[in-house]
Backbone:
């Protein structure tokens, strides 16, 4: 795990900037900083979970944060019992579904999908299983050591309760970020430079009637939830 929390700090500032810009009707700029907040959050997840290195951020990853999602999924496939091709196929189907539909028509589906992520129920049994899988992977003798050491057992039980408390929102946060990224990543350049053959100012294109602009408040709210969910989970052992 690399020291990656600076990326979360910047992502927090980016989402604040997006809110201020939206309130002041600087809509393309609001979209840009929203996209930046999502991208930095996903890159932080990749660094924190050890699936990428800082040296990967510019050349291999760039603005293609979806690569990190696939790497994270591959790293946890032993838990979710999927193979790599299943993960790639599922992600590509979702990506194509979004790209092949008009955003205006797809807008309500996006809202419902984000609401559904918030309502996901992750059973305590599943969380227990995940804890066991993580411990087995990191230290196969851990449970034997716990039985012999009461202090270690106390620390383990304390850690387990914190994990159960914060893990559900962490998973929801990861899914929310990647769902938002599927949409906003395509606009990282469009909102910054003149648009189309007419070389129009993005402000003329991304007006209040644009479906992405109409999604900005919802995306900001969900991004704030995700940033908190990630921060709480990663920092839980410091509480």
Residues:
């Amino acid at each position: 795990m690399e020291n990656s929390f600076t990326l979360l700090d910047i992502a927090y500032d980016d989402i604040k900037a997006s809110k201020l810009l939206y309130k002041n009707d600087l809509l393309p700029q609001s979209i840009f900083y929203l996209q930046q907040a999502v991208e930095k959050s996903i890159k932080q997840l990749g660094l924190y979970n050890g699936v990428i290195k800082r040296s990967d951020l510019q050349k291999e990853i760039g603005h293609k944060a979806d690569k990190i999602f696939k790497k994270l999924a591959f790293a946890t496939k032993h838990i979710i019992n999927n193979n790599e091709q299943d993960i790639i196929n599922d992600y590509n189907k979702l990506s194509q579904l979004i790209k092949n539909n008009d955003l205006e028509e797809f807008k309500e589906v996006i809202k419902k999908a984000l609401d559904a992520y918030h309502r996901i129920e992750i059973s305590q049994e599943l969380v227990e299983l995940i804890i066991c899988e993580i411990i087995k992977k990191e230290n196969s003798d851990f449970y034997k050591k716990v039985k012999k050491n009461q202090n270690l057992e106390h620390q383990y039980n304390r850690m387990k309760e914190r994990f159960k408390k914060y893990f559900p929102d962490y998973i929801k946060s990861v899914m929310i970020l990647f769902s938002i990224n599927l949409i906003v990543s395509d606009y990282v350049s469009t909102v910054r430079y003149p648009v189309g053959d007419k070389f129009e100012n993005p402000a003329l294109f991304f007006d209040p009637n644009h479906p992405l602009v109409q999604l900005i408040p919802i995306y900001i709210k969900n991004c704030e939830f995700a940033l908190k969910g990630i921060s709480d989970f990663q920092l839980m052992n410091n509480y």
In short: Residues 198 and 221 are 34 Å apart (CA to CA).
